[in-house]
Amino acid sequence: MKRTIVFAVVVALSLAVGAAQDTPKVIDVEQLEDNLFVLRGQGGGGNTGVFVTTDGVVVVDTKNPGWGQPILEAIGELTTNPVTTLINTHSHGDHVSGNVAFATTVEFVAHATTKTNMEAMRPYTGRTEPPVNVFADTNGHGLPTRTFTDRLSLGSGADQIDLYYFGRAHTGGDAWVVFPALRTLHAGDAFLGKRVPFLDAENGGSGVAIPDTLQKAHDTIPNVDTIITGHSTQASWADLNEWAAFNRDFLEMVRTGRAAGRSVDEIANGWAVPAKYADYDPPNPASVRRNIRVIVDELEG
Fold this sequence. Notes:
The protein is α/β, with parallel strands linked by helices. It has helices at residues 68-78, 93-96, 112-120, 210-220, 237-259, 264-269, 285-300, and strands spanning 6-11, 25-33, 36-40, 48-52, 57-60, 83-87, 107-111, 146-148, 151-154, 161-164, 176-179, 184-188, 226-229, 235-236. The protein has a domain at 41-250: Metallo-beta-lactamase, Chain A (4-Layer Sandwich). An eight-stranded mixed beta sheet has the order 1-2-3-4-5-6-7-8. A six-stranded mixed beta sheet has the order 9-10-11-12-13-14.
């Protein structure tokens, strides 16, 4: 049976000038297994996974700018093992910006498309300003040093990690990070939580492909019980199957609306979360409209 222990590590970051301090960054550490933790933080961005192996620590995603050192200090409270590997599930700044705080000895791993996206740091769909490019000041330190295209395994035995790629979803390079011995998966924002997804077309995301990508992940990856989501609490394997269905239903709703001659706004104004997904978060109307526009552009582009 899983044991969940929640505690907080508070880190006050000193400003470069004077004795003033930045707003304290609070890391909440949730223990899923003896050697697997989820690190969250208000305003920190995506969920960080910490997997303590025999000889080192593997980190999955590193939150917003300025959160790398708090993550490292939180890890130091959990183990004396050094961080050896850092995996990024995708390229968004709220999942990769903390990379720059990690040592040069760390191996940075991501899908090949994610590396390309991280090097470019393009604006996200629906936003005009580019994200903060933390790598511009590090001469590229923190960018992926090892990439994969379809499948990659790291370590062995109880320390093994399996990386999968099934196609476009939230972005064009979403990695699925599996800890087989613990029957647990970190999905990043390919499954950010039970809510309307964020489809980042500028970085390869797809509202047309995402249902099939999610279904392939569910139908292909074996022996997983628990999913670490990108921005919510843990989900079950059945939840992933439902999440694929939710996105498939949304896609078909847009197809039907366009076939009937309705505009993006008309489709958005006429949609509500179906009753069978009653436990999903209330949708943001702007996000719904944006996703419909992404899908329409794909279908008709």
